[in-house]
Amino acid sequence: MPRREERVRLAALLNIVFTILELVGGFWTNSLAILSDALHDFGDSIALIGSWLFERGARRSPDASRTFGYQRLSLFSSLFAASILIGGSIFIMFQAIPRLFNPELVNAFGMVGIAIIGIIFNGAGFFLLKKGESLNEKVLSWHLLEDLLGWAAILLGGIFIYFWKIYILDPLLTIGLTLFILYNVTTNLKEAINILMQGVPKHINLDSVTKDLTSIKGVLGIHDIHIWSLEGETDIFTAHVILDDEILEKQPEETRKTIKEILQNHHIEHSTIEIESKYHCSGMICEGRDRTTRK
Ligand SMILES: [Zn+2]
Ligand SMILES: [Zn+2]
Ligand SMILES: [Zn+2]
């Protein structure tokens, strides 16, 4: 097993164990802040399992029944995590808001203890993944750093409650942490939905791709353009390109190469291009052929 996959799997395992500890600790201390962090970590566990699948899928090559390979598996875990996190957040909010008006006693000493363990666990995960070289691991390690800050907030809250009995801090922290969870969920969900809808990836500007391609010498027009992403990293481009007669006859290969180069400048590695003359379209229907063709 490659080390990278091993690291992500270990981080996932640590997270799952810790989520269970937090659940127990949350009920024991009666601290909603710790419970909301348990929810957050549960979401993280699913995300980590998802990226573990992703690391595996990245190695598992396409086969006769899955010609795109298995990378999109990670999308399922994103959607699954999102539905659990949204449901859990709503549940916790319903618990936290009444406590604002009627704060309950919490075991501050226990809160501080769990926060310290949390800092150790998350810190370990952070340093484990920081060594990773893949983008996936980098993103995860930054995320764990955010989690460390969450634990620091709970630690401070616990200390304040312990010494000054400010019990309202617990629901306040809970609401803050839960809003943060919801913010992250929406961001991830938007991205996953964009991939499922085969939307143009955020980092690609369709207009400037089209503009660059139509400025190639001999290109009369371009239509039936599709830009989408397989799983968020591999971007795919297909289009019909109309060449003028002279270029079509004398240097179709050079033009094709130029097109590929331009696409690569736009971070598109995988492209399929249909070369057409101005007389006939190669598709059943050539969407927008007239609109984008230079006269
Ligand atoms: Zn997290
Ligand atoms: Zn291909
Ligand atoms: Zn066409």
Question: How is this structure best described in words?
Answer:
- It is a multi-pass membrane protein.
- The protein has 295 residues and is mainly alpha-helical.
- It has 2 domains: 3-196, Alpha-lytic protease prodomain-like (Up-down Bundle); 206-292, Cation efflux protein, cytoplasmic domain (Alpha-Beta Plaits), CATH 3.30.70.
- Helix content is 67%, strand content 9%.
- It has helices at 3-29, 32-59, 73-101, 108-130, 135-164, 169-196, 206-214, 245-250, 252-265, 289-292, and strands at residues 219-229, 235-243, 270-276.
- A 3-stranded mixed sheet has the order 1-2-3.
- Helix 2 (32-59) runs antiparallel to helix 3, helix 2 (32-59) packs antiparallel against helix 5 (135-164) and helix 5 runs antiparallel to helix 6.
- It is elongated and about 85 Å long.
- The chain starts with a helix and ends with a helix.
- The structure holds zinc ion (3 copies).
- One zinc ion binds next to helix 2 and helix 5.
Output the keywords.
mainly alpha; Alpha-lytic protease prodomain-like; Alpha-Beta Plaits; 2 domains; three-stranded mixed sheet
CA-CA gap between termini: 57 Å
Large-scale geometry: elongated
CATH class of the largest domain reads Mainly Alpha
Helix count equals 10
CATH architecture assignment of the largest domain: Up-down Bundle
Main sheet record: 3 strands, mixed
What Rg do the Cα atoms give? 26 Å
Percent range for β-strand residues: 5-15%
Number of strands: 3
How is the largest sheet built, in terms of strand order?
A: 1-2-3
Order of H and E elements: HHHHHHHEEHHEH
Spans of 5+ residues with little confidence (pLDDT < 50)? none
CATH topology of the largest domain: Alpha-lytic protease prodomain-like
Bound chemical compounds: zinc ion
List the domain count as a whole number.
2
Overall pLDDT score:
87
**Portion in helices:** 55-70%
User: Which class of secondary structure composition applies to the elements?
Assistant: mainly alpha
- At the fourth CATH level, what is the homologous superfamily of the largest domain? Cation efflux protein transmembrane domain
Membrane topology: Multi-pass membrane protein
InterPro entries: Cation_efflux, Cation_efflux_CTD, Cation_efflux_CTD_sf, Cation_efflux_TM, Cation_efflux_TMD_sf, CDF/SLC30A
Subcellular location: Membrane
GO molecular function: zinc ion transmembrane transporter activity
